[in-house]
Specification:
Layout lengths: L28 H24 L7 H4 L8 H15 L10 H11 L4 H19 L4 H5 L7 H5 L5 H19 L7 E5 L6 H10 L3 E8 L2 H11 L9 E6 L16 E7 L8 H10 L1 E12 L11 H4 L3 H4 L16 H10 L3 E6 L2 H7 L5 E7 L1
Parallel strand pairs: 1-2, 1-4, 2-3, 4-5
Antiparallel strand pairs: 5-7, 6-7
Helix pairs in contact: 1-3, 1-4, 1-5, 8-9
């Protein structure tokens, strides 16, 4: 089996000084390879879909004529697939998806949950594009009961990198602060609890209370079960709250100005009215409190990033309030849009870890960041 080479850049040529803020486990060739391998696999599966739909050899513009009558959001998904494949200087170099999957798993068996999720999405795409099936029925099919548990897990190297960077950033942010009492933490969109576990692995001794929120009772139950087994669980007061971030913040039932840290990993890009939700989260912070977000950020506006292959199937990912400056496109935001949205919501001293523009200049496919903003 032929080893896979990084297709956008050689690792040895990356100026790693641009990533000096990353923890060592993320600032590694293994992480860059995992990102490239996943990117390549999405390209391969996107091409599979184009071929299935009869557009394998067409330009992105001409491909639109293959499936007439697409609804607006289906058109956007179809354009994304064609654009993702067309970004390759030589699309014919895209690997056969079956062979590439075997190659990836031979090197990184722990990427199986990521590839499984991509495959489930790929299998559902033709019906989604034709309008005969919605994204929720594809991605939350009862036939795949452990799909999301395994993906949102710190054993999954692709997903874990975001948790690692976000938790590392929290540790750095509060390491120089003098706290008269332990931190009160509120997590928005806690999911199955992997981000909370990563955070406590680093700063549990500084946390006094931790409130986890999510819209899914099933996810919250899993988060609670996992955190109950954490070594620090006996020293921290945990709270769990069902919360829809799309509801008006005065109806969240969370006391204002109560938390030193609002923490959110891979969630806020999916809220309907981003600025309004950010305002609500800002109201939860005490004076000089901090919002720390782990996010996938587009290297530039209109630049497709591989997680969108899966998540654009979901209506909540696509159906958002748009604004030409604050949020010009649905899905993941670019750095300029994040800065503008946070500032519009009243946050100050917004910064990215690593410094985003320098990171993208060093590695054009970079999209993993933590965003820090003061309330």
């Amino acid at each position: 089996m032929t080893p896979f080479s990084m297709f956008t850049i050689d690792f040895d040529t990356i100026p790693l000084d641009a990533f000096r803020e990353l923890p060592a486990e993320v600032r590694s060739e293994a992480f860059f390879r995992v990102n490239e391998l996943t990117n390549a696999y999405v390209d391969a599966r996107a091409r599979d879909i184009l071929v299935t739909m009869g557009a394998g050899s067409l330009s992105p513009e001409a491909a639109l004529s293959v499936v007439p009558g697409l609804s607006a959001d289906r058109v956007a998904a179809w354009q994304w697939l064609a654009k993702k494949v067309a970004r390759r200087a030589d699309p014919s170099s895209i690997a056969n998806s079956r062979e590439l999957r075997e190659t990836i798993l031979a090197e990184f068996p722990s990427l199986s949950p990521t590839l499984d999720l991509i495959d489930v999405a790929a299998q559902g795409y033709p019906d989604f594009l034709r309008g005969s099936r919605d994204g929720n029925s594809i991605l939350f099919d009862p036939a795949f009961p452990t799909l999301w548990d395994e993906y949102f897990d710190n054993e999954n190297p692709l997903y874990a990198a975001g948790n690692t960077l976000a938790s590392h950033t929290v540790g750095e942010e509060f390491s120089g602060r003098t706290q008269t009492s332990k931190l009160k933490v509120f997590e928005a969109g806690a999911g199955c609890g992997s981000a909370a576990q990563a955070l406590l692995d680093r700063v549990a001794d500084r946390v006094g209370s931790y409130t986890l929120s999510d819209i899914s009772p099933g996810f919250l139950r899993k988060a609670r079960a996992g955190l109950s087994r954490h070594p620090a669980s006996g020293n921290i007061h945990f709270g769990y709250k069902l919360l829809d971030l799309n509801r008006p913040s005065e109806r969240w039932g969370v006391e204002a100005q109560s938390f030193d840290l609002v923490y959110a990993v891979n969630v806020l890009h999916a809220v309907r009215d981003l600025v309004e939700t950010l305002r609500g989260l800002r109201r939860l912070l005490v004076e000089k409190g901090v919002l720390v977000m782990g996010e996938c950020v587009r290297p530039a506006r209109g630049h497709p990033v591989h997680p969108e292959f899966v998540f654009q199937l979901l209506e909540e990912f696509r159906n958002v309030v748009l604004d030409p400056e604050l949020r010009p496109e649905p899905g993941f935001l670019d750095a300029r849009s994040w800065r503008a949205s946070l500032q519009s919501a009243g946050f100050q001293r917004v910064r990215f870890v690593p410094e985003f523009e320098a990171a993208v200049a060093a590695y054009p496919e970079h999209s993993l960041v933590t965003i820090v903003a003061e309330g």
